[in-house]
Give the backbone structure.
Amino acid sequence: MTNMDITLPSKKFKHKATIFSVAAIVVTVACIYINFNPLAIITEFHFIRDLLAEMFPPNYQSLTENSSTGYAILQTLSMALLGTLYGGIIAILLAFLSAPNTMPYKFVRLMVQAIVSLIRVMPTLVVVLIFVIAVGPGAFAGMLTLVFTIIGTFGKLFADVIENAEQSPGEAIYSVGASRLQVIRYSIVPQILPPLIASLLYSFDVSMRTAISLGIFGGGGIGFKFQLAKSVLHYKDMTAYISIIIVLVVLTEKLSDYLRRRILGEGKLR
Amino acid sequence: MIEVKDLTKTLPNGRKVLDGISFKVKKGEFVGILGPSGAGKTLTLRCLNGLLKPDSGSVIVQDGNGEKHDICKIGKRELRQVRQRIGVIFQGYHLVKRLSVLENVMIGRVGQINTLRSLFYGFTDEEAEEAVKALDKVKIAHMAGNRTGSLSGGEMQRVAIARAIFQSPTLLLADEPISNLDPSNAKTIMKLIRPLSENIPVVGVFHQPEMTAKYCSRVIAIKEGKVIYDGDPKLSNKKLEEIYGEELGQLDQYEYSQQPSMVEAEMRLL
Amino acid sequence: MTSSKYSFKRYRKLIIPVISLLVVAEGAAIVCGATFDKLFTGLTRGFSFLAYMFPPQWNAFSEMVEPALQTILIAFLGTIFGTIMSVFFAILAASNISNKWVRFIARFLIGLERSVPEIVIILLLIAAFGLGAMSGVVALALGCIGMIGKLLADTIEELDSTMLESIESVGANKFQVINFGIMPQIMPNLISYTLFRFEINIRLSVLLGAVGAGGIGYELDYSFSMLQYHRALTAVIVIMIMVFGTEQLSSVLRKKFAGEGVLK
């Protein structure tokens, strides 16, 4: 396998330069179209400086006086927890229903796959607005939205994991007279449960961030409090909330790491 | 010309890995460094181009203009300048696998061209042609356009040599260049390295005394951080034992006499 | 005898964790105000509302094209600028390039960015610069750093350090080592991460649009608050097409570029 037609460096450079120029033109046109001037960040930096001046030092007093902050943190955590928990359970169930090795009926599979795809493409914004109309604003709407988001994210992923599970242990069990359900219980479930749970735990801190975002849309929790502070221009409160958010997310990351190691490292699922 | 004086290095745990290594290599010499594992051969070689800094001692090399530099003492910038004319080939080839063979060779001169030009424009067509000539010298020019990762070990080592040739080096270093190659490829590589020593000093670390005996003009043996031999590449068995330890000669005999013969083993099974 | 003892003992380990999980879940449900009857009434209300939203306002589709384009462009520019910044941060955050302090600071900044949701970022930007696409693009670009920056930094650290050393040995300076050693090797990963992030950014762009970045997210939010639910459904459909199209495009491009490996 020889390759004598090497591209001369000058040609390669011309090639690279054209691609770069085209990309630069596209980006410039796009910037002009939506009226975005990247340099404005530098020229108008004083806005950021002024904002930072108003935001610091963070005002923790108003938070600690008001007991609702702790409750809001609890709410956000609960939203993330329940969203991941129930969303995960439903996602796993749907995955079993949409994977060929656990659901032999093609019709059911296609239906479930269509539902999962539909859920996945639904923009979060719509989901949260509808849930707010359905169950009223607050953490419940946020939690339900999160359930939806988790199903959308993991529905297909889990189906792929189930599909790619090894068949041989299942065949062995089947050949000694087990039913399909037993094959699922003893061959597939032990294989896939660890990676599934790992993914869910891994996504816990993403769910936290989503929960905070949803709070801003009326979903309750600390996102909501942040929004509130902004709407009355209490900048120092905002900064305090941001610091709490950062701490919360970091702690959640550490927690999910810890849980993952404990649950999976211990070999709890046998 | 390269002159090594009194290299010493002690590990944090107190072990002296280099203990006064000294030797001098002139143009026209192909020096092979032998020794048992852990003796300090590779460490010595790495001191020669500054990849390792010894605790004390000096390594004096001549650059393209005839000026002398002490590798152990010069600053980063000067080191880079001196390195431009020092060719190095490694046991694991260490080429950039996703670039083409030609590009890997041209990287040899990257230190010699202007930084801005190398980053934005790349190499010139003239440099590419010279690189092809270098590839031709190692008989691999027909693969110039191939992706380096698709080459075999022997071919990759030849590319590495071509890169060194492309540098127009004043010194060539080789760190176990043939240890990963089969005997036929190893011979090819040694046959390619030897002619290079006509104009510049070549220093290589080897684990194969039979190869150094055949191709090197001089052999240096290092044991426990000290130079214990410096001279004729053809080493007697007694000398080899001295270098590698008594076990080498006796071990063969022990193993041979203790192993049941193949015939006996078969009969026992039957 | 022994068999029943055996099967129950196995599950004993699970009892405490499962019970504590149930307790925590129940507590969390109370905190959120989640009850089953609220759920059921909510579901019925939600479905009837969805049914009410049909049919979409057909003549509004043409009005949605420009906002959709805006949203896509905001996501596009945010991804482009974000990727450039991420590469910069990732190189600084890789232990095989930077010294201890630079790496620590870079990793800290990346981690810090990861903790702040993009919505919070855009609200701050709006407070500074006002509403509009600029806040959206900057928020999305900064958002990329947390994800692409971290992934890329890890990828760089896993590179073969001996290859980098080999390039150093010919006298290359740091920039050249980065340009010839690191960039070619991480290209497929970079393309893959960028395309993946683009999918995420499209969704975020919709969300941020509602908060003030403009585009179709804003149209959706506006329609809802104006009780023009049929128009809102039109926006929803357009958004769904957008997201779906982006996913397909992204997976096609990823297979093409990141799969076979692009020679730089």
DSSP finds 13 helices and no strands in chain A. The mean pLDDT of chain A is 83. Residues 235-266 of chain A form the longest helix (32 residues). The domain at 66-266 of chain A is CATH 1.10.3720.10 (MetI-like fold).
